[in-house]
Every structure is written in structure tokens, then in C-alpha cells.
Amino acid sequence: MGIQRLADLIRAEAPEAVSSVPLERYRGQVVALDASVAIYQFRTAMPKIINRHGQNISPLQGIFYRTMHLLENSIRPVFVFDGKPPDLKQAVLAKRATIAGTARGGAGKGAQDSCLWSTQPEDPASEDPPQWLQKRDSETLLSCLGVPYVQAPSEAEATCAALVKSGHASCTATEDLDALPFGSVRLLRHLNAKHGVLEEISLPAVLQKLGLTHEQFVDLCILLGCDYCDKIRGLGPKKALKLLQEHGSIERILEGPCREKYPSPANWRLEETRRLFLQPEVAEPSQVLLEWREPDEEKLVQFLAHEKHMNETRVRRRMEKWRETRLKRAQPQGPVPVIRSSPRQRKMSEFFRVKKHPCKETKTQCGRKRQKRQQETVLGT
User: Fold this and answer.
1) What residue numbers bound the domain in which 371 lies?
2) Cα distances (Å, whole numbers) of residue 144 to 77, 136, 137, 150
3) Is residue 240 part of a domain?
4) What are the DSSP calls for 37-77, one per residue?
5) Which residue spans within the chain are E strands per DSSP?
6) pLDDT tens-place string over residues 127-147
7) Of 121, 223, 287, 303, whose CB has the highest number of CB atoms within 10 Å?
8) pTM across the whole model
9) Number of domains in the chain
10) Is residue 30 part of a domain?
11) Residues 10, 206: contact at Cβ < 8 Å?
12) Per-residue model confidence (pLDDT) at position 53
């Protein structure tokens, strides 16, 4: 679910923090992706692709094409998988599972979290494979593509944010905005945009425009509504922001006249929720091995085409397109112009040979002799 209405509030109150960027801007950079969100997107947004085993392989195909698209654009993705959900999230997970129980495969991302880390098989032959199988297949696919993945001990967004804060990644790519209160300084959304223009949110710019510290921003996210505790009823986004800007913390808001107007929920676990955002359990970035290798096409075909029964021709065609694109990018964009110096202007003497006068005497001597001859002619001598 993420943080309720946070994206709308940021666009309204801190529009300078949101920008449209081309995918090419991240060329050569590391992007940390929330794998659970990606799997959920492909599972719900794409038409079902049922293989001969009766399994829906649309999430697997979606991960394959998205990863190839990123690699084709010289972007280095690293996928982060959810671990065991925090205890604070169990209540909301149970609620979502109940709501989605009537529609098989209709559970949202949050309802999947509780079983993504589990390795207990449910029914691998069902049309919608259990999440543990989707996770295992995604890891196998990424290994064939030479793309690293990380197993988070708890929330994937928290480990993505830790990778960004430590400089191991440039941004977190996810549709949920939970990565911002977890501390990701840059968030990238709409990675599936066909036109290649993405939405980038800068956390430092958000904090500056809203006039909040990171701790106060976490309080704002709690007031808006998150996955770890109930929200205060009747308190809208703009009112919550205004009160927090005036009072500085949730406790001070509730100590004033707002105590009766906006009572806190019963058994409200405010401090535990704060601690979860500010001090989350994450995979230690220094212990994470991020290494990208060349894709193994034959292993990829063996897995996707022979085991999962994806169309082999399409798989090989996509790999061929990737190779052609990479080769094209490696070549110079055009012939290097040869710069020649301007030709030296030639003298007239270089075109025509100029004969020297046979007389080696000076002009003064020649002039005197000419004058003497003219006098002799006049005198008749």
C-alpha cells in the first residue's frame, strides 16, 4: 500500500522535488528495484500467460523483458526481495488477505509479503504459483541474466534505501513511496513507461520544501497512514502537514487542543513504528556482493523455454536485439572528421619563373650610363 496520499501531497506542496527524467539519465548507474512490487505489477497488470503446466508465467516474462530493457540501456539493476514482514505489519497483512481471499490471485503486494520469504510449497501446479515459487523462479532468471539480487531480512524498501544511502545504488525503483521514510534520497517511479520518461522524487528537496527534518517527515508519513499502525481518523494530508510544521512532532500535536478533535487510536504503537522507519532491519550494504556478468543465453533458453515453456524464438530474438544494441552503442556515433590545415597562399613567383636582369650593376650605375649616352647623342659625339 505504501504511504497513503503521500505522492499527491508532495506534488501539491513540493512540486520542485518531482521531476520527469529520461531513462538514459541513469545509464551506467546502479538501480535498486523492489522485486516484490515488480512481481505484483506483472502478475496483475499483464494478461495471464499460461504454459503447458497450467502456470501463469506472466510475472516471469515481465521480469525478463524489463531486465533486458534496463541492460540494453546500460543500466545495472539489482533486485531486492522481501524478507519476513515486521510484526507490526501482521495485522494489516491479515486484513488484506481476508479481503482478497474470495478472489484467487487477487491479493495485493502486501498480502504476498507474508509468504514471499517462506519456502513451504503450497501448490506449484496451480494456475497462480505461490509466491515462494515466483521468488525462486525470479532468482533463477536473474542468475541466468548475470544480474545480482539481494535477500532483505525484512522490508525490501528498507534495504533498497540502505543501498542508496551507502552509495551502492543511485536510486530506489518502486511504485510505493515507503522508500522515502526509510531514507532513500532518490526514488524512481514508472519504470514501465513506454515513452521512457520516468518520475524522480528527491527526498532532500522534499524535506527542504516542506520544512521538515527526516524524523518529522517520518511522523508525517505515520499521520498519513502506513502499513505498521493505524492512522488518526479525520486528519487529512494538508492538515497533518500544517500541524506538524507548527508543533514539530506527533506528541506535541496531541498535547494541544487537537487532542480531543483528533484522538489517537487505541493501542497505538507510535514509537515502534518510528523505530522501524528510522532504524530498520536491512542487509548490510558492505556485505552485499554486487557483480554483473554476461548473460548465459543457453542456460536462459533452457530455463525459460524448456522448463517454463516460454516461446524460445522470442527469447533468442530478444537476446539478439540486446547484442545488436550493445554493439551499436559500442561503435562511434559517426566518422571522426579529419581537420586539415588551410593551404598556404602561393606567391606569383611560384606560378611563373622570373628571370633576373643580366646586368649586375645597381640602378644608379645603369641610370648614369643611360644619361651619358643621351648627352653624347645630343652633342653628336
Assistant:
1) 348-379
2) 14, 13, 11, 15
3) yes
4) HHHHHHHHHSPP-B-TTS-B-HHHHHHHHHHHHHHHTT-EE
5) 18-22, 30-34, 76-81, 149-151, 171-173, 186-189, 197-202
6) 566 778 899 999 999 999 999
7) 223
8) 0.81
9) 2
10) yes
11) yes
12) 87
